[in-house]
Amino acid sequence: MSLAFGRHYLAIPGPSVIPDRVLGAMHRAAPNIYQGELVEMMPGLLRDLRRVAGTEKANVAIYIANGHGAWEAANANLFSRGNKVLSAVTGHFGNTWALSARNMGIDVETIDFDKSPVDPARIEEALRADRAHRIKAVFVTHTDTATTIRNDIEAVRKAIDDAGHPALLAVDAIASLGCDPLHFDTWGIDVLISASQKGLMTPPGLSFIWFSDKALAASEGSELVTPYWDWKLRSQSTEFYRYFGGTAPTHHLYGLREALTMLLDEEGLEAAWKRHAALASSVWAAFKAWSRDSDIALNVADKTRRSHSVTGARIGNGGAMRLREWLEKNAGVTLGIGLGMAPPTEPAYGDYLRVAHMGYVNAHMTLGVLSAMEAGMRSLGVPHGTGALDAAAQAIAEAI
Ligand SMILES: *Cc1c(COP(=O)(O)O)cnc(C)c1O
After folding, report:
1. What are the pocket residues of ligand 1 if the criterion is a CB atom closer than 6 Å to any ligand atom?
2. What does each C-alpha distance from 208 to 171, 272, 333 come to in angstroms?
3. Is 0.90 surpassed by the pTM of this model?
4. Which end of the chain has a smaller Cβ tally under 10 Å, C or N?
């Protein structure tokens, strides 16, 4: 027997759950792209994109692309072949961004923190060693969605400043924007990358780059950029189509408009951050109980460095893969695969999973997933500590 009939819940770290209101806003005939509502929507959209990133002064470029596209856009705008970047890698996503730069001919120096959070002292050390100031930017992933580490961006800024180095701070916040506190201006970020399909609750297909005037100046003369990806053309536009280098992504813009209204004007950004923190605390509480006397452990031991939008964990002996399959088949829940924790060719690959609590997710959804996971562990005979659901409920009760 299966109990999967009912609304399926895709509890993976993107695409996240799309609110019905966002879907509804997109469900319309092709709108007028010359004048009227859509064109008039643009100043408000740009204003709200700044609000969600905690900036009053950043330039904003919108791309019809996923996050990989925004990575390449940032690479292209910032660099010429042979320019140097320092990349802090704390998981699969940091690695992939660095690889995209390397494949574009950029000289990438990597500090691999081996699936641990960034140690700012090592960034400072690498920058101090760069006496000629060849390093043009430091890449950091805010939340590495694979390990589910959340790095301390302010500490990286401080490391750059303490080293007396002019490098730009470039941050990938695709998995954290709208979920975890993020302040472009006060954290001294120069380049921020995000995308529509995670905390912004909109289908995949839009990505965004916020960039400081310092980054804009540093991008002058970059040889890698082509007109379509040029962030200057996109951010300093006077005609509507130029924001998009062609036809606007009409329906995505309507969806994004609705999502930003829900996030910023109805729930409120700080309330959304608190909701994510509370949901995360219930997931951590459950795992703490499950991990007692068992082969279960969270990926990130340090609580202060855990993402609030997604939690990665190990359930040994292939337990994670079996549990994912059980949940899909019997409970109508899809959990995230364990990305980059072990090669897909090795048995250990089956030991990792991720539970997303990202975007349009409330208490009953997360508690429901945890309960379904407990049922799956019991059904499969996966050894686990007791009291997880009590602990998860307690965490929610305490957070309210
Ligand atoms: C999802 C994600 C990406 C990749 O985004 P795509 O839209 O799949 O290209 C990059 N970085 C982080 C941190 C992500 O979470």
Report:
1. 14, 66-68, 93, 141, 143, 145, 172, 174-175, 195, 204
2. 12, 20, 30
3. yes
4. N
